[in-house]
């Protein structure tokens, strides 16, 4: 206000072109309140002067007990200006005048003392032709005792005053770190407190440089986070609240390994000067706690039992998995999943999933285990059991338990924080010891086009449990460009262990029938044989056993030798045309054709 009106007065002088300048010396409006032991800077500038641009300044103090006595503090032109009370402090740099411009300076006192209270006068020696305007200006400084207190409160809801040595806190990764700070001031004047929580890396010396702000409450009550914590504040993972008149509480959720360190609370006291600007008049810091973050990966461990297993086929297989470590209980902040993997003996890699329980406790079976009777359950707080109702020889392999720990990050999404695999647990399931053999042949030896080809397959079985059942498939390999290739092997038909027939694709496209003609004797019939049915056929029987859980599993298989099917043309057909020409010629021609076909076919067979 005052500055504004003075300014317009000055502007009036200048604009009227009178050419007379009025010197004016300006210091901030008082009274200023500052706290003993802290620093103060008082600015002073001069306008409307004549003479050199480089003006000199002298600072004086009038103490309340002797308001008439001017004590020289410091001057820009005379190093011997200071009175005895200020001499040593000026010499030590604790009191100094700093030039900002030719016509502006700053008086700085780094550690205010109680006897520094009083009226400060900034005086500018005249360089003007005429004596006009003001040559000095005054501001009052009042020195307040230091009433700011900062300390740690225990993290409990009550917030008791903590012991003097900083506590050591351990939080689990993903959990919440809550720290309390008590900050109060009993300064008589109205002041605001700014409270800031900071972190210094473990073992690092603490200072402004090493201390990284986490979050702070500004004098205007705005909550702001340090640069690297802004995202977590925005996500609601980091919070700062004031509880009651003097308690402040910081909550940092989703603790990460990088959150470890020494936490501090810094309280700053701010006062509003008469000119409206806010000045910090005191600052104090207290150590809140040394915080360790226990990562899940450093803790999660998995053990399996009960050791190497040897069981017979059809017997139940039970494996236990214990998850251990100092882990947070499953709940809002942490979740776990446990599964079993199996690698067949000698197979590389971590194996394939058998069964697992997800973070919600929902079980699922791995690919290839869908039809099996398998249970995965939690039998104790940290013990999980895998049970295969009826083991099969194919279950032989090494089993590992795989546990994963998750923490709930910002946005309530689960993030995998750690995983651990147990040592391998070997499991052996005895083979059934079934020996299968298959003998296949073409009934009648030769077959002509248009007739039905009957292929028979006799199976012999040795060993195996009672109730063993047989299934058989018939396969054909077709000549491609005169060559037989196994890639063209096709299923023609078959019968499963329940006696249900299944049909594949017949090369010639006609009807197929499969049936059981004896207890261990299967038959495949290809009706209305055509030239496209030519090929090498075989039967592939398999032996099956049904377990108590009603699942079937294969205990043996075999493959018969090859059976060649060549649909001959009828001799009559080949003879029909030549007969018209003459029986003698016809007989010779027919015999030649017949022997050619036979010869070529035999050659083809030999080529195999
Ligand atoms: C001169 O000092 C006064 C009081 O400290 C301040 O408000 C003003 O901005 C200063 N003027 C200049 C030009 O520095
Ligand atoms: C798993 O924990 C249970 C109970 O805590 C214990 O009896 C069992 O021996 C443990 N098994 C393994 C393999 O560590
Ligand atoms: C095939 O089995 C049937 C009936 O089981 C039997 O009569 C026949 O002699 C067997 N044939 C051969 C070649 O083993």
From TrEMBL:
| UniProt entry keywords in alphabetical sequence | Cell membrane, Disulfide bond, Glycoprotein, Immunoglobulin domain, Lipoprotein, Membrane, Palmitate, Phosphoprotein, Repeat, Signal, Transmembrane, Transmembrane helix
Segments forming domain Ig-like: 37-140, 298-419
Q: Where are the transmembrane segments?
A: 575-602
Look up and give the membrane topology term. Answer: Single-pass membrane protein
Origin superkingdom: Eukaryota
Q: Which PANTHER family match?
A: IMMUNOGLOBULIN SUPERFAMILY MEMBER 8 (PTHR12207:SF22), V-SET AND TRANSMEMBRANE DOMAIN-CONTAINING PROTEIN (PTHR12207)
Name of protein = Immunoglobulin superfamily member 8
Q: Which organism is it from?
A: Desmodus rotundus (Vampire bat)
């Amino acid at each position: 206000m005052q500055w504004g009106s003075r300014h317009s007065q000055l502007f009036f002088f200048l604009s009227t072109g009178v050419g007379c300048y009025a010197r004016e010396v300006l210091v901030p409006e008082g009274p200023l309140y500052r706290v003993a032991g802290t620093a103060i800077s008082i600015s002073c500038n001069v306008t409307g002067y004549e003479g050199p641009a480089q003006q000199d300044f002298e600072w004086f103090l009038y103490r309340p007990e002797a308001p008439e006595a001017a004590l020289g503090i410091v001057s820009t032109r005379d190093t011997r200006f200071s009175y005895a009370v200020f001499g040593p402090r000026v010499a030590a740099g604790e009191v100094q005048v700093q030039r900002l411009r030719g016509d502006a300076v700053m008086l700085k006192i780094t550690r205010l003392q109680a006897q520094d209270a009083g009226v400060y006068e900034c005086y500018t020696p005249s360089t003007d032709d005429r004596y006009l305007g003001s040559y000095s200006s005054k501001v009052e400084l009042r020195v307040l005792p230091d009433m700011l207190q900062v300390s740690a409160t225990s993290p409990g809801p009550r917030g008791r005053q903590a012991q003097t040595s900083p506590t050591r806190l351990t939080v689990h990764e993903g959990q919440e770190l809550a720290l309390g700070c008590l900050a109060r001031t009993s300064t008589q004047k109205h002041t605001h407190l700014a409270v800031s929580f900071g972190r210094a890396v473990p073992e690092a010396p603490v200072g402004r440089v090493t201390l990284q702000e986490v979050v702070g409450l500004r004098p205007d009550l705005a909550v702001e986070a340090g640069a690297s914590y802004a995202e977590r504040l925005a996500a609601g993972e980091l919070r700062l609240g004031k509880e009651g008149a003097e308690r402040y509480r910081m909550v940092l959720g989703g603790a990460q390994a990088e959150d470890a360190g020494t936490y501090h609370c810094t309280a700053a006291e701010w006062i509003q000067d008469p000119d409206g600007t806010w000045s910090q008049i005191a600052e104090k810091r207290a150590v809140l706690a040394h915080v360790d973050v226990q990562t899940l990966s450093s803790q999660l461990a998995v053990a399996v039992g009960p050791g190497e297993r040897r069981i017979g086929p059809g017997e139940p297989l039970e494996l236990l998995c214990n998850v251990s470590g100092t882990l947070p209980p499953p709940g809002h902040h942490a979740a776990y999943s446990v599964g079993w993997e199996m690698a067949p003996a000698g197979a590389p890699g971590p194996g394939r999933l058998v069964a697992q329980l997800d973070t919600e406790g929902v079980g699922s079976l791995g690919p290839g285990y869908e039809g099996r009777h398998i249970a995965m359950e939690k039998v104790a707080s940290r013990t999980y059991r895998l049970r295969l109702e009826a083991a099969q020889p194919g279950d032989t392999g090494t089993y590992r338990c795989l546990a994963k720990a998750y923490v709930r990050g910002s946005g309530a999404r689960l993030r995998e924080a750690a995983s651990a695999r147990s040592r391998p647990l070997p499991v052996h399931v005895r083979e059934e010891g079934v020996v299968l053999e298959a003998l296949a042949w073409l009934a009648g030896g030769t077959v002509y086009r248009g007739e039905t080809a009957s292929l028979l397959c006799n199976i012999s079985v040795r060993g195996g449990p009672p109730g063993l059942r047989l299934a058989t498939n018939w396969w054909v390999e077709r000549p491609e460009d005169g060559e037989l290739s196994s890639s063209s092997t096709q299923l023609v038909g078959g019968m499963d262990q329940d006696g249900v027939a299944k049909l594949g694709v017949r090369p010639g496209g006609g009807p197929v029938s499969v049936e059981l003609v004896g207890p261990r004797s299967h038959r495949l019939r290809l009706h209305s044989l055509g030239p496209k049915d030519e090929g090498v056929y075989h039967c592939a029987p398999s032996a099956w056993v049904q377990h108590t859980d009603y699942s079937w599993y294969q205990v043996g298989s075999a493959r018969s030798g090859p059976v060649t099917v060549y649909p001959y043309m009828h001799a009559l057909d080949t003879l029909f045309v030549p007969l018209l020409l003459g029986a003698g010629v016809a007989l010779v021609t027919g015999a030649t054709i017949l022997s050619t076909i036979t010869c070529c076919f035999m050659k083809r067979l030999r080529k195999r």
